[in-house]
Amino acid sequence: MLRTIIIDDEEHQRLNLEKMVKLYCSDLEVIAMADGIKTGVRAIKKHGPDLVLLDIKLNDGTGFELLEALQPINFKVIFITAFDHYAIRAFRINALDYLLKPVDPDELCQAAKKAGEIIQKDFNLQLSNFQNFLKPDDKTQVRIIIKTHDTIHLVSIKEILFCESDNNYTRFHLTGQKQIMVSATLKEYEDILAESGFFRIHKSYLVNIKNIRRFEKGEGGSVVLEGDLKIPVSSRKRDELLALLDQMTNHLSG
């Protein structure tokens, strides 16, 4: 059983979560609740929980600031958030669990089960990478976490040449001829990586635009990446890709 602390600045949210835990999550035991950074830090230091259900927006700051005040982290965290595209993309990229408000009991129990299974050092790795993602010193050095069934890989965005669909799996092709296969669809990674310079040039391929060396004309055409890797471009994506490449060229020349 995971000894759990709920931290949320709204009393009704705390009480609702506590009620959900009691009704639906037999693996959790609520040992304390708090409404902000100061009270949350005190509760965590006093009780030493296994898990914290942590709202991102608190009355005296953010959940991220609370975690920074408690380094190193020796408990698991499930984040709770209102819908925010950037925050959710950050969570998904770094394989951290989050719940959207209003919290669904089934999703809460699933997240709790996953929290109980993850190894603490793996969670700390994911959390560290998440914090670096939110405020990297160098945007080109942003890394994402790619999870396989037995390994957590930290991969720099610039190392990814392209992603290839394989039914319900995605194969990452990296520099140095490295490959990683994950159990997730290409569409999921298209949504995650779109703002990091990736473009879906074909139903089977998602390419890192920064790693394109040239475009070759032909039926639809193809792009050539590092190592002379040639990837086909679908005819319906051709014009959009060329416009994007022109935009990048004009930006560099300007």
Structural account:
The protein folds into 2 domains: 2-134, 3-Layer(aba) Sandwich (Rossmann fold); 139-253, Beta Barrel (OB fold (Dihydrolipoamide Acetyltransferase, E2P)). Helices cover 37% and strands 31% of the residues. It has helices at residues 11-24, 37-47, 63-68, 85-93, 105-117, 120-134, 186-193, 235-253, and strands at 2-7, 28-34, 51-55, 57-58, 61-62, 76-81, 98-100, 143-147, 152-156, 160-166, 169-174, 179-182, 198-202, 205-208, 212-216, 222-225, 229-232. It has a 5-stranded parallel beta sheet with strand order 2-1-3-6-7, sandwiched between helices. The protein has a 5-stranded antiparallel beta sheet with strand order 12-11-10-14-13. The chain has a 3-stranded antiparallel beta sheet with strand order 15-16-17, with no helix packed on it. It is elongated and about 65 Å long. It starts with a strand and ends with a helix. The mean pLDDT is 85.
Write the layout of secondary structure elements.
Elements: E1 2-7, H1 11-24, E2 28-34, H2 37-47, E3 51-55, E4 57-58, E5 61-62, H3 63-68, E6 76-81, H4 85-93, E7 98-100, H5 105-117, H6 120-134, E8 143-147, E9 152-156, E10 160-166, E11 169-174, E12 179-182, H7 186-193, E13 198-202, E14 205-208, E15 212-216, E16 222-225, E17 229-232, H8 235-253
Parallel strand pairs: 1-2, 1-3, 3-6, 6-7
Antiparallel strand pairs: 4-5, 8-9, 10-11, 10-14, 11-12, 13-14, 15-16, 16-17
